[in-house]
Design a protein that fits this description.
The protein is of the alpha+beta class. It folds into three domains: 2-146, no CATH class; 158-225, Helix Hairpins (Orthogonal Bundle), CATH 1.10.287; 233-390, Histidine kinase-like ATPase, C-terminal domain (Heat Shock Protein 90, 2-Layer Sandwich), CATH 3.30.565. The protein contains eleven helices and seven strands. The chain has helices at 2-19, 22-46, 52-61, 63-97, 101-193, 201-225, 237-254, 274-292, 329-332, 350-360, 383-390; strands at residues 233-235, 258-261, 270-272, 297-305, 315-321, 364-369, 375-382. A hairpin with a 5-residue loop joins β6 (364-369) and β7. α2 (22-46) runs antiparallel to α3, α4 (63-97) runs antiparallel to α5 and α5 runs antiparallel to α6 (201-225).
Length: 391
């Protein structure tokens, strides 16, 4: 009977849990136990005393709610259900039958068995519940470890792909750069020798612009494929941002955009390579200008974040926001991959170079869309690097 009750308890529990909140499940279980106890007791009370065979069956039916109570509510539930079963069964023993001797000892011994069955079932139920909780926790930890492993493998595969692309790009860029410089130099000489109104002057100017564009692409390729090690020195973020705004101010004005720095005057300096960090800001602000369209504002803000446990958790966050159309959701995850671009005229290397520079500085960069429109780029630079470099 215990195996059958075990199966019934598990089946009932799963059915209730799958469709109801925990509070509702517990309330319904209590109602089921109460209905069983009352129903069995009524069978005793309304069955004639001389039908002893039925009373022997009914008293053993009390094991059903005892097992259910112990299985659903643990040791305490088993003890309470056994006690209630005893209280409900005692009146017929004392007032209806008045058995003595061997028969009375057997009936009172049944009460002891209620307690024993309730206790054993409750202990086993508590133990199984603990084991289930431990298994669920182990499963969550295993799933998290597996996800971390998958992320690590994906990073390794991405690093391998980027390394191959970088080596190929560096070789091509090196081979193309010298003849491209010769072409541009020759175009400059020819353009200087032509009169201002010469019809070939327009074509020579096209050659100059296109070679300049190719030169810019090759520079990006070399920056990405063979990044130089940063030369750390103290850099004032506010001053660097103002310098970048001066460089790109005219470009922003042509698009009707305002550039605003929200960096506090007393914001601490960071240890970084000023040239590389300037390249990061130029790429990001220029990208915001080109993506924003006409009108709106581009802002740069910065703040410090202190860790809870150690100064090694401290970092500096720099946020660049625009009020443009934002980033397509499908492109956010690919934004920093090489040769991925959302613009027809883009090379797809600017943000890859930014990502590479931030990594060599021990930081990182992420992109997201603002709730009220536009894009947000968040850069992180660890303060630990500043302290280690200076110490």
């Amino acid at each position: 009977m215990c195996d059958i009750q075990h199966f019934l308890a598990i089946t009932t529990t799963r059915a209730l849990i799958s469709s109801m909140p925990i509070a509702t499940v517990s309330r319904n279980r209590l109602l089921i136990l109460a209905a069983l106890l009352v129903g069995i007791s009524l069978c005793h009370y309304f069955t004639p005393v001389h039908l002893d065979i039925f009373h022997q069956i009914f008293r053993r039916l009390y094991y059903i709610p005892v097992i259910f109570g112990a299985w659903w509510f643990g040791f305490r539930g088993g003890m309470v259900t056994a006690a209630v079963s005893t209280i409900l069964w005692l009146p017929p023993i004392i007032f209806q039958w008045g058995h003595v001797g061997t028969e009375a000892a057997g009936q009172y011994g049944e009460i002891v068995m209620f307690v024993v069955v309730g206790a054993i079932t409750g202990i086993l139920a508590d133990r199984e519940r603990r084991l289930l909780t431990e298994q669920q926790e182990a499963a969550r930890e295993l799933e998290a470890a597996y996800q971390r492993l998958q992320d690590s493998l994906e990073q390794i595969r991405r690093a391998d792909r980027l390394s191959a692309i970088g080596q190929l790009s560096a070789g091509l860029a090196h081979e193309i750069r010298n003849p491209l410089g010769s072409i541009r130099g020759a175009a400059d000489l020819l353009l200087d020798e032509l009169p201002d109104d010469h019809p070939s002057g327009e074509f020579m100017d096209i050659i100059r612009k296109e070679t300049a564009r190719l030169q810019h692409l090759l520079d990006d390729l070399l920056s990405y494929a063979r990044p130089s090690s940063p030369a750390f020195a103290e850099v004032a973020i506010g001053s660097l941002v103002e310098h970048v705004f001066r460089l790109l101010g005219k470009e922003a004005e042509r698009n009707g955009l305002r550039l605003e720095s929200r960096i506090p005057a007393d914001f601490p300096a960071v240890m970084a390579d000023e040239g590389q960090l300037s390249q990061v800001f130029v790429n990001l602000v220029l990208n915001a200008i080109q993506s924003s369209g006409s009108g709106g504002m581009i802002s740069v803000s910065a703040y410090e974040h202190s860790g809870n446990n150690s100064v090694h958790d401290d970092s500096i966050h720099i946020v660049i926001e625009d009020e443009g159309p934002g980033i397509p959701e499908a492109d956010i995850e690919l934004l920093f991959d090489p040769f991925h671009t959302t613009r027809d005229e883009g090379t797809g290397l600017g943000l890859s170079v930014v990502h590479s520079i931030m990594e060599t500085h021990g930081g990182g960069i992420s992109a997201a869309n603002r709730e009220d429109g536009g894009a947000r780029f968040t850069m992180t630079l660890p303060i630990r690097q500043r302290e280690d470099s200076s110490g």
